[in-house]
Amino acid sequence: MGRRSIKEDKNIYQQLREAQGYSRAKASEELKHISDSRLVRIESGEMVPYPEEIITMAEVYGEPNLPNIYCANDCPLGQAFVSQVEVKDLPVITLEMLNLLNRLTKQKDRLIEITVDGEITPDEMNDFKNIKKDLEQMSMAIDSMQLWLDNMIADGKIAKDALD
Q1: pLDDT at 6
Q2: Where are the domains of the chain?
Q3: Which CATH class is domain 12-81?
Q4: Can you give the three-state secondary structure of the chain, one letter per residue?
Q5: Global confidence as pTM
Q6: How many CB atoms lie within 10 A of CB 146?
């Protein structure tokens, strides 16, 4: 095994590799199509990995959230449109979802009133923005639930085929 890095500001790619106990050479071998020298440049921040490399890293390093982290932080397109999903415990996710479902149930009739005529008038805009914000939060809660599930599968706590 190679020397252990003492660098303090390690990026996520180096942190995940080291968490697996892999040297760069061993990681490169496991990652198949990522050379040792390319891995050095990715981990030093000189180079942004390709999406297919991120998928492979997520699988090899056992980190299902890596594609979301990449999209939210490193991918120029993702930075504009993707929010980073927080890793949370199932009870927290469930309570957030139930709270949002209750709010959205109360807002359902108002959303119908706002949209029935096909336009949003200035007096409807604040209510519409609030509903949109709650829908975005629900989307994040759903993503968080999916991440929790992916982590449980990656950790072997839930069998992937049990969900089919």
Answers
A1: 62
A2: 12-81, 90-163
A3: mainly alpha
A4: CCCCCCCCCCCHHHHHHHHCCCCHHHHHHHHCCCCHHHHHHHHHCCCCCCHHHHHHHHHHHCCCCHHHHHHHHCCHHHHHHCCCCCCCCHHHHHHHHHHHHHHHHHHHHHHHHHHCCCCCCHHHHHHHHHHHHHHHHHHHHHHHHHHHHHHHHHCCCCCHHHHC
A5: 0.81
A6: 15
